[in-house]
Amino acid sequence: MTDQVVRLVLLPVSARRLHYREGQYISIELANGELRSYSPATAMAADGAIELHVRLHPQGKFSTLLRERSSVLSSLKVYGPYGDCVWQTPTSPDAPILFLATGTGIAPIKALVQAALSSGCTNPVWLYWGARHVEELYESAAFEALESRHPNFHFRMSASASDRDHGEPRYVQDWAARQHPDLADALVYACGLPAMVDAAQALLTQNNGLRAERFFADAFVSATAPAATPRPPADTLSVNATFDTQQPQQVTRNRLQLEPGTSLLHGLRAAGVLKGVCGGRQSCGTCRVSLTPHWFNQIPPPARSEQRLLQALPEAGQLDRLACQIIIEPALDGLHFSIPALAV
Predict the structure, then answer these.
(1) What is the pLDDT of residue 185?
(2) Among 24, 56, 254, 272, which one is least packed by beta carbons within 10 Å?
(3) Mind listing the pLDDT tens digit for each residue in 138-152?
(4) CA torsion angle for 197, 199, 205, 210 (degrees, to 10)?
């Protein structure tokens, strides 16, 4: 696709298919157990093929395998799908739908846009795609073709390192905010760099009237930039916890020591119990745990973003929380919880 982006197509090795919705993402497990997350760039195919857009990093482990066309790639273990950045029904036939993307974040956006237009969506649809250089906007011709066929679809692209013409904004969120001062009835989808996603959410909700629950994003963290976990002081005592792992016809009790000031997911990951996929950005649900009523009430209530993800998980219960959002403190000494069978 470019010197830095390759198209990777995964084919199922059996009749079993991975079913996903446009906008969701999957994770690929490397030989050392590490995960890499990518969003399919197309809707589900009849043959089960999954198209991914992968950015090649100079020292990336998966990138190296792709460059060398390693035989390891002949069979990959895939997990998912994850995320709730999926199509939502517009509030009215006139409500604008905005898509913001940077870099390879265009992959799930492409799947969403194509599905919406092919299904007959007549709402005004705007796509803003940004990168540092014009040559990185590798799908621009395809979107320009869509724009020529669909009068309600509008495509704008921006290269932040290029010269600006006519005062055009440098970043996609600024361009969208300028062209859409009133987003009270809009739906907004954002995929790409976490910095863009966070900036877009803040800008459009605070300045343009966008309702927070109508902003959808899955900005999972790249393996090259893992989310930092606060470290406790050296003299801080650990917190004791117990948890049950659930397997068919068997429940196993486990003990765990946790560091105050870190997340519960940090402790579970260090113990090799859970991996987590999205880096604590509340978009995958793979660190879901079930608390007892007592401990559920001892933890601060979940933020709206955590509530929305838990509500989107059909298997989630009323006492479930995301381990990445539970911060360990001394008052949680004796914490008890269980981990669903699908997560272990």
Answers:
(1) 96
(2) 272
(3) 999 999 999 999 999
(4) -40
